[in-house]
Amino acid sequence: MKIKTKLRLGLGVLFLMILALSLIAAGYIYALKEDTENILQDNYKTLDYSRSMFLAMDEIHAGPKAWTGFERNLKEQQLNVTEPGEGAVTRKIAGHYNALKKDTDNPQLPVLIRNDLAELTRINMEAIRAKSDKALATVRSAFIWIALTGTVCFLIALTLLINLPGNIGNPIRDLTESIQAIAAKKYAERLHFSGKDEFGELASSFNTMAEKLEEYNNSNLSQILIEKKRIEALINNMHEPVIGLDENKKILFANEEAVKISGIAATDLLGKSATELAEQNDLIRALIREKEGLHGSMGNPAAPSLKIYADDKESYFEKEIVDIMIVPTGERLKKCIGQVILLKNITPFKELDFAKTNFIATVSHELKTPIASIKMSLQLLESRQTGDLNEEQKQLMSSIKEDSDRLLKITGELLNMSQVETGNIQLNIQSSSPYAILKYAVEAVRTPLEQKQIELVVHADEQLADVKADMEKTAWVLINFLTNAVRYSQQEGRIHIQLTSTGEGVKFHVQDEGKGIDSRYRNKIFDRYFQVPGSSKTGTGLGLAISKEFIEAQGGRIGVNSEIGMGSTFYFELAKA
Ligand code: ADP
């Protein structure tokens, strides 16, 4: 219970009890006043009248003066009849007195009058005793009630007297002692008020303060400086660039590597706002940019590498931004106090990658010539000039031809891929007829179509508007779509090829009735070297990746719609010329 409520409750009850005590006392005093006032008013006066009448009776024979005294007192008594029976006695006195007035010599009448007066006195004395008993009873009950309420008041006051000063004073004393302890640098001092009242809250705030002070006190300055130097040395000796920012993007530290690649002097870097520096420095801008929004060229969310020219050579780095989260002393919620930008030097990997690409490019280029000469020799062998071949030799020749075609396709794909990887796609974009591209591609796949006896259904308008395209590369993509469609179609199946105008461009569709592509792999088939598990292993997994690069390099769009068991529709769209 809050102290405020406790005080209100205690003092409120005490106030009510004192009020009750005062009302009870006042009530009883008023009752006593009523009782004693009646005795005086009703009975004392009657006794006085009857005494005067007694005295007047003694002098009744002295003359008319005594008569007047008696009559005056009798009249007063007749007006002051208050007790039961008093009226009858008074009337008797008046009767006997009137009779005596008429017969003054009657000796009986004075005796009767005196008896009457004695009776009147007795009635009033009894009334006085009854009233006195009543007053006594009132006094007794007043005593009981006043004592009872007084005791309750006393007990409450006593409880308050014993508890209240301690309840308020003790925590204040403890707090004072603890504050004095803190002032004397005893930071381990804590308050232990368990209640949920104001003192409980005070203790919790005090303890948080003491905890913080203790932490500050323990973090001795020289110790901190040593720690700082140690961490600085550690960061400086790292071979990878590291930059630390505070929550307002102010540069807190940058190791030697970071200073070297930034090209800014350390003094101009440290303590400066990275946002302001980014306005003039491209590298800092690239470093503090949180979300790159870029993805790997094949749709993979790959971390983009930064190409940095420093130390007279080109280096490649991968960036990582780490948020520094801490829980401040005495608090509960985590708070971000800055960021650390880490750069991983990936130059050796990049160099290996370049070497691989160059190697592939050279090898595939070098292989092209011997393969072409094999093909030429095959053609010569086929012609009659070189003599007839028997069936077995013809079969061998056809398998050599198939293999050399495959080899030529693979080397072509590898060469294209190396061009894509080095960013050397040479485009020859010109206004081209979609129908011409289609015709060229269809012509190229005629043999495999015939081999598998596949029907090719063409829905295309010859008059379709020209597109902005590199004829050769676009035909390559369409041929790749068609070869895949043939490869994944059943014997004697059907392939639809369609050209549609889409307003801004022309869309090429190749639809087959093959096994389709599982939704799990649909986004991956455009990745390099990816092949759907369980599909024919004769390819390289590069065809669709190169197609995507070729179409996107021409500003077009490529995609696939497919359901497993429902066939696939590959498409690309190019802008109208
Ligand atoms: P590959 O040289 O292996 O055909 P691609 O890049 O052309 O390489 O194709 C990648 C993968 O996509 C293939 O391994 C195949 O599983 C799948 N794929 C391509 N075209 C089709 C198609 N028409 N029907 C079913 N699967 C296909």
From TrEMBL:
InterPro entries: BphY/WalK/GraS-like, HAMP_dom, HATPase_C_sf, HATPase_dom, His_kinase_dom, HisK_dim/P_dom, HisK_dim/P_sf, PAS
Transmembrane segments: 7-31, 142-164
Pfam families: HAMP, HATPase_c, HisKA, PAS
Keyword list, A-Z: ATP-binding, Cell membrane, Kinase, Membrane, Nucleotide-binding, Phosphoprotein, Transferase, Transmembrane, Transmembrane helix, Two-component regulatory system
Keyword Transit peptide: no
Signal peptide feature range: none
One GO biological process term: osmosensory signaling via phosphorelay pathway
HAMP domain location: 166-218
Keyword match Translocase: no
Every Histidine kinase domain range: 362-577
Record-given protein name: histidine kinase
Gene source species: Dyadobacter sediminis
